[in-house]
Amino acid sequence: MDLRNIAIIAHVDHGKTTLVDELLKQSGTYRENEATAERAMDSNDLERERGITILAKCTSVEWKGVRINIVDTPGHADFGGEVERILSMVDGVVLLVDAAEGPMPQTKFVTSKALALGLRPIVVLNKVDKPDAEPDRALDEVFDLFANLGADDEQLDFPAMYASGRSGWADMELDGPRVNLDALFGLVLSHVPSPKQVADREKPFRMLATTLGADPFIGRILTGRVESGTLRTGQTLHALSRKGDRIEQFRATKILAFRGLSQQPIEAAEAGDIVTIAGMSKATVADTLCDTSIDVPLPAQPIDPPTITVTFGINDSPLAGRDGKKVQSRVIRERLMREAETNVAIKVSDTPGGEAFEVAGRGELQMGVLIENMRREGFELSISRPQVLFRDVDGQRMEPVEEVTIDVDDEYSGAVIEKVTGPRKGDLAEMKPAGAGKTRIIAHVPSRGLIGYHGEFLTDTRGTGVMNRVFHDWAPYKGTIPGRRAGVLISMETGVSVAYALWKLEDRGRFFIGAQEQVYQGMIIGEHARENDLEVNPLKGKQLTNVRASGTDEAVRLTTPVTLTLEQAIAYIDNDELVEVTPGAIRLRKRFLDPHERKRHAKAAS
Hints:
The chain is an alpha+beta fold. It folds into 4 domains: 2-195, Rossmann fold (3-Layer(aba) Sandwich), CATH 3.40.50.300; 206-291, Elongation Factor Tu (Ef-tu), domain 3 (Beta Barrel), CATH 2.40.30; 391-476, Alpha-Beta Plaits (2-Layer Sandwich); 488-605, CATH 2.40.50.250. Helix content is 23%, strand content 33%. Strands 18, 19, 20, 21, 22, 28, 30, 32, 33, 34 and 35 form an 11-stranded mixed sheet that branches. An 8-stranded antiparallel sheet has the order 12-11-17-8-9-16-13-14. The chain has a 7-stranded mixed sheet with strand order 2-3-1-4-5-6-7, with helices on both faces. Strand 34 (577-582) and strand 35 form a beta hairpin. Helix 9 (364-376) packs across helix 14 (566-572). The longest helix has 14 residues, at 135-148. The termini are far apart.
């Protein structure tokens, strides 16, 4: 069967997964009476909850006798390790752009990778039926983006379509019939080259492993595109590392191909198809699986380096072990090593004592997703504040800088620019009206300055601002950036919080806990209204007497406590604080619980 391999690229929430849903439906992949889930490609619980794609996934549809393998790529740069690997499997890309918002930072990130690989894009302007859609402006911005990213003449001569993924139509003209996606299917067949043109079936078998997984029945599995030759079940292969070292020899016990949303066993895999192979025990991502006669590996796409590091440690608070079952450092280490094996964008290293582990990755969102997955698996952890990774280039200290794209109401633009370019040491790159009373601000800000800024940004814009960020470049170190300005309220007792005590302390700041919650000495229970830390007693009850008079008993009405999400908690803490993560709770605490020890370490640090 003739083949086409394509990847779909889009910014977060531009409608990529919804469009894939419609492609599956209209290609006849589902039976007419089959129950289908919305956003079928978002199979992970976190993906469904957050409405984002985290893991790259493949599906396959048939259209007029041609099999089209479709890869759904993550839209957030923090999961870019998935994108860089997955693009090596395809021969063309469909770039989906919101007709109102135009190309956004994550669009730019993934598209630059695709253009560098020489892939010819198809541009689909989605959501053109929205009231604020401006498809012509969005199309001009896409062309400018391609030109800025160094696209060649062939890539700049891209076909464009107008579509509404939710309504299930795509047309070459804006005022087309708006019936179905036939025009998009036809354009994919005519514009994307067949892998037969880039692969040779007569040569020995070779495949570059791009994603690693595990199946409870068949064990370790690797997915990739067959570059050349034919593989049959039971054939003996060997795995070569990037450097050409032989890792292991194994027998391909099973070959699985994508058919719709499921994978089905096949007897033979031919050049150009995307398949999954089982039977290996050591081979991993970026290794070449090939015939035993081959000793030269396929070139693997280089992966961008991590930019931040977070320390994962055991939970040693007084409440440790109450929620989770996995609390030992050995178990935590095994889980992190397993994650690093499947996710090439993460690097794990031991700290000097062996009780904690340095995990380096792309950003706070990627770390938040990893920690959230671990807590759902029953782990208890203590997490440090993210630290930016620096480089030394010719004796000069370099730090990562991110391109931040901000859409805010005109009235808040001044406050945002002041915060971004002032204490956070950012440089304003562009500022332009975005229509409907909004301003688009593009700035280059050190990654250090953005840690913990998102909550402050939402406060400054009254929750109406939208901020997107993507790695831009390495730049010379810009000096000290001030951290959190406010101090914290620290519990000086261990026990259960009392409503009367919290009520009396409300003028000291805002609380992260409510009444009748477990607290312990050294736990952070709120934010102080001033810059210094303050120890308070949330357990102190009202002194009772047998004298009562009318009007002396005041009703206790507590302000609703602030509930921090996992990402907000990690971004909020200071260097001498930790986030305690368990399956049932997220707490903040001082690194040193004993007040005398805290003072001693603070004195030594100063």
